[in-house]
Amino acid sequence: MHDFSRDAEHEEEESEAGAPAPQQSAPVLGPKEWVGLSSMPTATQNSLLEALSKLRDRSVNEMTVIFIGKQGVGKSSTVNTLLNERVAPSSPFQPETVRPLLAGRVAAGFTLNVLDTPGLLEGDSVSARGLMALRAALNGRKVDAFIFTDRLDTWRVDNADKAIFTSLAENFGTELWERTVLGFSHAQTTAPDGKPYDEFVNARVEQYRKAIRSTLGMPNLELPFALIENGSRCKTNGDGEKVVND
After folding, report:
1. What global pTM score does this model have?
2. Cα-flanking dihedrals φ and ψ of residue 145, to 5°?
3. 140: Cβ–Cβ under 8 A, 6 or more apart, which residues?
């Protein structure tokens, strides 16, 4: 497995340049019983338990997922929504934590570890603090998936985004991107110019995929995606589950 942690020499150079010393580990909230699961809609509970059963049948009893991306794109809110518990501060009026946060939850003999990390942008530049926090989160940990989060209702990919793509590959290896899912928050948004919702989503996803693939020189990178809506007014289906589009 690829070693995501940077060597001590690079860490010392960054500290000498005035960046904060890297944290040794993420604050841990768990693992403990996944109490939020029991208050999810029944259909959601059944789907999740079925998925966990299939993983256990493959002798997979634990999974670790890390949320990465810029500030203000909904990483913390998505962690809370995923677990159906408030484990990460997510108010827009609260300063963002500078340390990664780990929440471990156990259900049906399966452990789900979810890590929320600080934003990777500082002004128009990649955040050295954010990179070191991510390095601390990775610290010897086997990661099954990274969720690179951005807003669906952001209409472009700019040079700051591309700098983040490059920096992640340079600091943690291209393998990180091979295990990345694109997560688009604020998914219950109205498509511009009367465009059909599915057409709008596909265009946004392909815009992002194209930018990452061309920036990294990885034309065959898959980059699956997921739509995310954390708002309390999100639509629901007949089973009470949140849906972003009927």
Report:
1. 0.84
2. -160, 145
3. 5
